[in-house]
Design goal:
Layout: H1 2-8, E1 17-22, H2 29-36, E2 42-48, H3 51-56, H4 71-78, H5 95-101, H6 105-120, E3 142-143, H7 145-152, H8 154-158
Parallel strand pairs: 1-2
Antiparallel strand pairs: 2-3
Pfam families: RloB
Organism: Amycolatopsis pigmentata
InterPro entries: RloB
Length: 159
């Protein structure tokens, strides 16, 4: 693992290392998170129920819990411009799809932050409580992909 090598040899060649993963009904999500959460350089961008949720937020705010399932997200995403046919057998981000996503990235960030902000303000939409009481799997739906874009400086380029 890159992070372990960086830490072990104290090279410090990376300021941050990102772990990007999603729920997608995987039973070991918390194990994956726990494996990296205490590393000082590793940041986590977790999407629940899936990475596809991040793509959907480019088109609209969606705050209905999915219980780890992705069917509704895929159906909604397939109805978005450029995403006809998107689904389990076609998840490619083609040039046409990228062209639809790019100008909407700012909206995706706003939508993702809005979901998180509701928790911070005790107006949580998640069934199991506010962020201080929510576990990683309780934050459904949610995504931390916006933090990665912010860290990379991509958000500055979108303004």
């Amino acid at each position: 693992m890159v992070a372990e090598d960086d830490a072990r040899h104290r090279r410090g060649q990376y300021e941050e290392i990102w772990a990007i993963f999603d729920r997608d009904e995987h039973p070991d999500v918390l194990t994956a998170r726990d494996a990296v959460k205490d590393h000082p350089k590793i940041k986590i961008a977790f999407s629940h129920p899936s990475f596809d949720f991040w793509l959907l937020l480019h088109f609209s705010l969606f705050d209905v819990p999915q219980d780890g399932h992705n069917d509704d997200v895929l159906t909604r995403l397939a109805a978005c411009p450029g995403f006809t046919g998107f689904g389990p057998s076609d998840k490619k981000i083609t040039q046409a799809r990228a062209d639809e996503l790019r100008p909407r990235a700012g909206a995706a960030v706003r939508h993702a932050r809005k979901l998180e902000k509701r928790c911070e303000d005790d107006r949580c939409v998640h069934d199991r409580g506010t962020a201080s009481r929510c576990g990683l799997l309780d934050q459904d739906p949610s995504t931390g992909m916006w933090r990665l874009l912010e860290s990379l400086g991509v958000l500055r380029l979108l303004r």
